[in-house]
Amino acid sequence: MVSRSSLHPLLRLEVGGVKVRVQQDDGKGQDKDGVRGVQFAEIMPGFPGGSQSMLDFIKNNLNYPDFAKENNIEGKVYLKFVVRSTGEIDNIQIARGVHKVLDTAAIELVKKMPRWNPGVQNGKTVPVYFILPVVFRLD
Q1: pLDDT at 35 (0 to 100)
Q2: pLDDT value for 40
């Protein structure tokens, strides 16, 4: 479980009743190849084109499932993933889910993301873990 005190806001967005916040995880886990992730890097990984490009990507790719709308399903899905040293997003996990349809929609959003610019520590690219809370709220 992810505690609120361990999260640091990076980006916020509301698109058609769906609120999204991107936050960084302070986890010390390993990616699937056993590479240690870091909380912060000298140069943090970034979405290609910067924050505005990420907001545009989310706006254009986040889908609030019809089933969830019709059944008034709302909530915040916490996804944990690593931005690998290659910039690929990998090891996507549900840190805390809401409902299968919302969890799946949040995972699909992250799977669509392009390679990021990787984080750099001591002159080497490093994997960095993130928590992406996706808030689904009906207005």
Answers
A1: 55
A2: 81
Give the percent of the chain with pLDDT over 90.
48
Domains of the chain: 9-136 (3.30.1150)
Helix (H, G, I), strand (E, B) or coil at 2: coil
Give the three-state DSSP class for 102. helix
DSSP type of residue 13: E
Pick from 36, 42, 48, 35: nearest CA to 117:
48
H/E/C letters for each residue in 55-100? HHHHHHHCCCCHHHHHCCCCEEEEEEEEECCCCCEEEEEEEECCCH
CA-to-CA dists, residue 137 to 7, 11, 69, 75, 77, angstroms: 20, 17, 9, 6, 11
Say if CB 109 and CB 61 are below 8 A apart. yes
Q: What is the mean pLDDT of residues 92-97?
A: 95
Cα gap 137→36, rounded to integer Å = 34
29-40: per-residue pLDDT in tens? 444 455 567 778
